[in-house]
Amino acid sequence: RAIEVYQKGLQQQPDNVDFYLYWGIALEQQAQWLEAIALYERAQEQVGTGAGLSVRKGICLGQLDRWEEALMHYAQAVEVDPDYSEAYLHWGIALQKLERWGEAIDKFNAAVRLQEDEPHMLFYLGSCYEQAARAQQNTDYFDRAVAAFKHLIALEPEDAFALNYLGYMFAEKGIHLQEAVELLLRAIEIDPNNSAFLDSLGWAYFRLGEFDQAEYYLE
What we know:
By secondary structure, the chain is mainly alpha-helical. It has helices spanning 2-12, 17-29, 33-47, 51-63, 67-80, 85-97, 101-114, 119-136, 139-155, 160-173, 177-190, 195-208, 211-218.
C-alpha cells in the first residue's frame, strides 16, 4: 500500500525525488534489491543524480555482496554533496567488508567529523578500529576503538550494544577485566535476555578466574 501511495505521488509530481527514495526503501524492506536498484536508476534518469539515490543504490549492491561496485556510488554521492555524512558512513562499511582497513577508517572518521555526536557513526568507527586492530595486530587502532566507544557511551549511557562491545573487547584482550564486568552487567540490565551479552559476561568472568559466575552466565 505504501508503494501505491508513492506511485500516485509520482503521477502528480514526476520530478519529486523523495517519492522514488521512499518507494525504493519499501522495496529494500522486502529484500527486492534488484528492483530497488532499477528504480533508483530510473529516478536518476528522471531527476538527475542525487546523493541520496546514489547511496541507496550502493546499499542495495552491498546487500548483493557487490561491494566493489557499491564504492563507485558512494564516491558519486560525495561528489554531489561533500557534506553528506551517510555517504561516508556507507562508503566506510563497504571498504570494511573488503578489509581495506585504512581507507574504511578514513571514511568513518569523515562521517564522524560531520556528525561527531551521532552514536551510530561512533559505533561503526569504533568497530572498524577494533576489527582492524585484530587483523593487523595494531595496538594504536585498539586504543582508538576504546576511545570511540567511551565517547559513544558518554553520549548514550544506555546503549547496550556499545557497552557490550567495549566490555567484550576488554575481556578478549584480558585487560581492565573488572571494568569489563561492570560494562557487561550494565548491558544485561538494559537487555537481560540477549544471549550475546550473557556470553560476553561469562567470558569476562572466566578471564577473571571466577569460574562459577562464568559457568552460570554461559549456561
